[in-house]
Amino acid sequence: MTYTDDGFIGFMKKRSSDALHVWLVLNKAIQAISRYADMKIQGAGLGDSDFRVLEVLLHKGPLSVNTIGPKVNLTPGAISVAVDRLYNKGLVSRVESAEDRRIRIVELTQSGRELIVPVFRNHMETIGKVFSKLSPQELEQLEAMMKKVGRNAETLGGTNEGS
Q1: Which domains does the chain have, with CATH numbers?
Q2: pTM higher than the cut 0.85
Q3: Whole-angstrom distance between the N-terminal and C-terminal Cα of the chain?
């Protein structure tokens, strides 16, 4: 791909991967992985956001609603709805913080733990299958490269570059 003077992309015989092509491939891979993983999670009767909330509580323990949201990439409104839904299903409890009544602490109930533990184990197997074509060394390299790119994107996101 080449860029013309007017900013449009001209397609030519591609000699090697460029950043845009890698980004497109990465996006397609993430979408395919997400569809496959989501299908398995939905088979257990959970939606994506419910799974993410239960998973973070399983691994991090009781957390405030405001702490959970950013960890699972949900807005304040969406995390409140998700926690309410899980509470109504009896999968989490929520109590006001002893230090600050404005803060609600969310914790897995026994039912929530009994649901998420096997679902998370299956999720680990599912993701393992997705990456099974890569050697341990390739997995390490991919992880390192994605961290490098992610950190760069975060750094760039803090600037006005390109605006």
Answers
A1: 23-139 (1.10.10.10)
A2: no
A3: 23
